[in-house]
Each structure stands twice: as C-alpha cells, then as structure tokens.
Amino acid sequence: MSKSQFTAIQTNSTARGFCLTSAFWMVIATLAGLTAATELIAPDISGNVSWLVFGRVRPIHVNLVLFGFVTPGLLAAAFYFLPRLLRTELYSEKLGIAAVALWNVAIAAGIIALAAGHSQGREYAELIWPVDVLLVITFALLFWNLIMTVRRRQEPILYVSVWYACAAVILTGVTYCLGNVVWKPDSGALVGIPDAILLWFYGHNIFGLLLTPLSIAVAYYVIPTAIRRPLYSHTLSLIGFWSLLVVYSHIGTHHLLQVPVPTWLKVVAIVDSIAMVIPVMVFLINIWYTAKGSLGEVHADIGAKFVFTGTIMYFVVSIQGSIMALPQVQRVTHFNNWVVGHAHVGVLGFAGMIALGGLYFILPRITGKPLYSRFLADLQYWFVFLGTIGFTTVLTIVGLIQGNAWLNGEMIYRVLPELQIYYIMRAAVGLTVFVSALIGLYNIVRTLYFNPGEAA
Amino acid sequence: MSLRMTPGAVVIGSLAILAAVVFVVVFWPYASTDYTPSEIYRARSSVEDGGRAIYIANGCVYCHSQSIRAFDWDLGSERIAQAGDYVADRPILLGSERTGVDLSQEGGEHPDDWHLAHFINPRYTRPNSIMPRFAFLGDDKIHLLTRYVQSLGLKQADHRMARQVYWKQEAIKAYEAGPVANVKWLAEHVPPGWRNLANPYPTTAAGLARGHKIYQEFCIGCHGPIGDGMGPAQPYIYPPPLNFTILQGREISGGILYYQIMNGITGTAMPYFKRELESQKIWEVGNYVAVYFINQSDAGAEPKGIPSAWEP
Fold it and tell me: Which end of chain A has fewer surrounding CB within 10 Å, N or C?
C-alpha cells in the first residue's frame, strides 16, 4: 500500500461522530439483547409493558447492532482512512457531520417506532418507511462525500480499502431501497413467496454488501498500517473484491431451502454458498500472509489485535455458513438457535470486532494522544472475545438440542424446559458483552474529550 | 496486474454486478411467480387482517414460523406448505426461528376462550411456555389477534373452527346440566373399548413422580395444583376446567382418562396431547390424577393380560 505522508491538519469530525455513534448505540443494542435474553428465562418479567415485549425488543436489538453499533463503527474508520489513502482532505466534514446527525436521528426514530409497535415485520427490514427514506438519504450523502473525496485525490492509485468502502456504501444504498420495497410505503413488502425471496436477498446482503466489505476495508487498512508492511498481493485483492460482489450477493435464498421457492434458485444458492470459500479465503490468505511474521506488532496494537481476531472469526463464520447451506445440514440447524449462534460469530465476532478495532486504531491517531486506557480496551477485547465464544458455544448446543429433538418428533413444549439452563448461560454471556459496551463507551469518550495523556 | 481500479470501474462495475444479480435471483423469480391459490386458500376478512397487523406490530414472527416442512412432526405438520398458501400475504410471515410452535394450521386447534387465557398469560394454558404476556393489548386487540390466529390454515381452519363452535355448544349444554350429567356426557363420547380399559401400568412411587412432573408441565394451568379445576386459566374458560375431585365412584377408568388426555375434548379448552406425550406419559399422568385427585385408581387391576416384563 502507499504510505501516505499527508500531514495537513484534518479535523476528522465525521470519523469522531461515527466513533461516538457506534460506542453509544453498542450500549443500547447490547442492553436490548440482554433484555430479550432475560425474557426467554423469565417471560413474565416484561409484565404488562408493551414496549418490553420480546417481539419488539428483539428487532430493536438486531437493528441497533447492525445500524447503530457495527456500521457506524466501520464507517468511522472509513472516514478516517479514506482521506489518508487518497492524500487529500475529506470532501466535506460538514456534509459528513450532517450525515452522522441524520443517521442518529433515523436510528433513534426507527427504534422508538419499533418500541411503539410500528414495524414492517420483515427481518432486517423492520424500520418503517420514513426511517428508510432518512437512511437512504444518509447513504447518498455518505457516498457523495466519499466519491468526491476520491475525485479530489492526489494519490493516483486507489488502494483496496477504498474500493470496498465506496462499493459498500453505494450498493447498500441500492439494496436497502429494494429490500425495504420503498415504492410501497404502507407495507414495505411484496406479496407471497417473492417477498421472501426479496427479503432474504436483502437480509443476506446486509452482511454481504455492507458489513463484510466495510470490515474487509478496515482490515486491509489497519493490518498493513499497524505492522508497517505492504499488502501481500494486489492480485488477490482484485480477485477477492470482484468474487465477493458476484458470489456473496446472489445466495440469500439459502435461507429458504425448506420453503416452496423455485428449485433452480435453491440450487444456485447452495452451490454458490460453497463457492463463498473463494472470496473468503482469497481475502484471508492476503491479510494473513501480510501479517505473517509480524503477529507481535499486531498484538501490540489494540486496534490491530481486534481486527486480526475479527479476521479469524470471519474464517469461522464463513466456513460454517457454507456448510449450513447444505440441505442435509439445514434439516438440523434451520429454525433454531444454531443460526442465532452463527449470527453472533458473524456480527459480533467478525464485523463487530473489526468495527471496535477500527475505532481503537484511529482514536489515538485522531487525538494525537494514546488511548485513555489501553487496559480498558484490552478488557473490552477479552469480554467481546469470550462473549463471542460463549454465544457460539451455548447457542450451537441449544440449536443441536432443538433441531435433533424436532427431527425425532419431540414437540416444542417438551423441548423448552431442556433449554432453560442454556438460556441462562446465554444471558450471562450477554451481560458480559453489555458490560464491555459500557467500558468501551467510557474509554472512547474519555479518549476523545477528557484525556489527560501526553500528546504523542 | 494491468487491471486499473479507477473510481468508475469500482462504482459502475459494482452496480453492474448488482443489477445482473437482482435481475436473475430477484426479478426473474418474481416475474415468473405462479400466484394460483392453493386448495386451502380463501381471502382473509378485514377483522383477520386487523389481527395480522397486531401480529406484525408485536413481533410474533420472531418466535412463530408459518412454514411447514416435509419432515416436521409438530403442530400443523399434516400439511406441507405450498406457494399457493401465501398468495395474499404482504409481507409473508415465514419466520426464521421456532422458539414457539409453527402457526400455519393453528386456526381451530383451540376454542377462542383458550386463546384469551393464553394471551392474558401464556403460562395459564401452557405452563412450559416462555411467550410474553399480551394482556396489555386489551380486550379489543386480543379479540382481533384471536380472529387472525383462528384463521391460520384458511379453509382448513374454518373447518376446524366450525367443529369447535358446534362442540362448544354441546359441552356448555352438558356442563349446565350439572356435574352428574356432565361427567356422563364426557364418558359417553369415549369409545367403549377405552371405557372398559384399566390403566395397564401398576401404581408405583416412581410412576406417580413422573405423572406429577407431566401434570405440572401440561395440566396445572387449568386444573390447578389440587385438581379442582381452579387453575389460573379458570376465570377465562367456559365451560370451566373439570374438577377431578368429584369423579370418585363415577366409573372413570384409566382408559377414559387416557383417551380424554390423548384426544382432548374439542369445543372445550382441553387440548389433545397425543403430539406432545407418548403412551407411557399419558398413562402415568392419568394415574397421578386418579390416585391423588379422584382418590380411586384402577392401575394394574385384573384382568390385564400378561404383565409387562419390567413390572415390579
């Protein structure tokens, strides 16, 4: 990669704004998750409070994790590294701050609406139409800012992180419109089976075209920068980028293998879910070979440590995902907590860890001082890491119990009591992750505003 | 590598790939969809649609699928889902997780009063349930939601609902005729072979303990901890749950108990348990009721054929 020596004063207001956005919503998101997990143990705890009902808290948790915590965290890093990789200033910090503000308004409005019972009722596409419009406008503003920065660049070569960041923002702007059926404001949905096909095309691409490309962009920036070595291979970068876009984007129907959708569509989804090994391993080989022999330096930088762990989680979640697309495997794993465990490896372990890594990598560089507390950042690392392992282990066990019991003809009500002990362990893990979010928010706010550390 | 990644290549190239993908895996299936309704399809009423909106608003879809698969055993598994079942569903509510039961064919499984008690607190009718309480919805919305749930399965649900309504009238008539007539009516609907059958398992401490566990997990919400029919669901249910303590000397055989637990009593809130409970569990919970609440058990009585190898 090009080592930018660009030294003009950058305010990084947009990156700071996204840092705070991510750290704040991580607290609320994990609190919502902890609440929902507790309700599965003690369902009467929601009492008669409408907005505490599990069915409203769960989408709040999921949407906040996706759009409150992880995406802004990754965007914070993107808005930091893009100007540096392009040897220019961000096109407009004002526009960036406006986008951050709009983003937060949209998220807050969406969550309040969900709590009040206004939902489109489609997984990952729950947010109601006005919020959809706000978010799409925000994506447009973000893209405009990024692409104008690219146009004003003084560095002729576009580094791989720039490709991924630009593609993620523009493609998600488009798939968000499609997935939320924005031309149908009253329902945000199609009718019948095509609605399911569209929904899972979209839902799958929240990971495939938003979280994954942004996470890869951050990893491609953070790891080589932290260890001060060039990227292993430009060719692999190219293959990884284009194959990710082609393969990841069209396999969402693997969520519908047990549903009456056209068989050819299922076949395509299954075959190319296996083909996902290509973009995944191409990226991982590229980033791991870059880091080869420099793991000490990765370990020394808390941001790089988060990011590198995230790449390992990417390996786990992706290989697991390919296997889960096999129909015989899905007979056991579909419709139960196995999939929830899978989602936690992906969104917390992979994208979430890389988002946090991005934040901790850029914060000292933005402020010119060390983190307020490296110890607290390390503590958060271990809480999130053990949280991911805990969620995966516990939820996979629950999923296997459920899936195998159902296949053997044991009914839901017979199996439920067997699960309670695992639900308790899952809530305990959730408490760990919630505490880690509080630690992170404190550390990040102290680093940005009340940091006594010496300027580096 | 000579391929230059210009901004145009990244943006236009990405969008072109996305356009091709959307055309093939979204638009093509959409354009070639066959919207022919299946044989069970009928339109939903506006009241049922109102209930569906409440179902969506409260996120019922996160725990309840509406998607029966070829290898399912649980509720609704008599009929594998077809594309034509969903032709009016906007959005489609297949669900992605089954924390609770699949509801594809829930309509008519229970009478309305069972649903009322269940929505007020799911543990009133299903002690093992981890569903939230929906009392906050209020009577009107619970009514709408019930109408939607009772429509699930469409024409098949209508068929079952008609049966529920008919037998509810019969059950109320019998209940209002007094306990003696009611017990007689209930027993008369059990096929003769079952009526004359004693519980083939002998009464043992271990068997009673297992019966106790089943009773607490499935029966206690309606019939109550002492079997007097005064469980927490009782105020919502009519005819009310049976009081077992009045059954002594009324010729309630183990076979009658087994049959009623297995098949339920359609029209009343008593569900069938033949999906959830295997044979031995039904015999043992029946004997628990007989020993502790009726205070009269025919368990292990002669003649009972050749004793089982495991019997003490």
Answer: C
